[in-house]
Amino acid sequence: MRNFDFAPLYRATVGFDRIADLMDRALTADVAQPTYPPYNIEKTAEDAYRISIAVAGFAADELSVEVKDGAVHVSARKAPEASEKTYLHRGIATRAFDRRFALADHVRVTGATHENGMLHIDLVRETPEALKPRRIEIGRLTDAARSVTATQADTIDA
């Protein structure tokens, strides 16, 4: 595996620490990523996303979805069964899991639903007004404004 030095990025930019940290985590992550439970990430609209996780065998109260440190943490713990069952074949895995999905800036979780063995987590990207492009009107300098500007210039010179 290649090692990348992000020092030049830190020297030449301001405020991009999170991107460099995310790249560093992605490049140094364990190659054997867990594959349980299976999940999909889909784009449902221009600024909307959905994470769908297959959670067959788990009830809604056994699942937990939290947002912290810029990531969505999904975990599940199966409640212990009261009666001991004897399985001839056990193909439905109900083992505990923890999954983490890193969120980009300005992405927030709008809700989560559990239906038909699937956990759906809806996300939306909300760009703040200050970051949205805006058009600046170019005005004309009127005669009254010219005289006020000239008066201010005379005051500064004095």
Task: Summarize it.
Helix content is 21%, strand content 31%. The chain has 158 residues and is an alpha+beta fold. The strands form 2 sheets. Strands 1-2-7-6 form a 4-stranded antiparallel sheet, with no helix packed on it. A 3-stranded antiparallel sheet has the order 3-4-5, with no helix packed on it.
Describe this structure in words.
This protein is of the alpha+beta class and 158 residues long. The protein folds into two domains: 1-33, no CATH class; 34-82 and 89-132, Immunoglobulin-like (Sandwich). 21% of the residues lie in helices and 31% in strands. It has three helices and seven strands; from the N terminus they run ααβββββββα. It has a four-stranded antiparallel beta sheet with strand order 1-2-7-6, with no helix packed on it. Strand 1 and strand 2 form a beta hairpin. The chain is elongated and about 95 Å long. The chain starts with 6 loop residues before the first helix and ends with a helix. The mean pLDDT is 81.
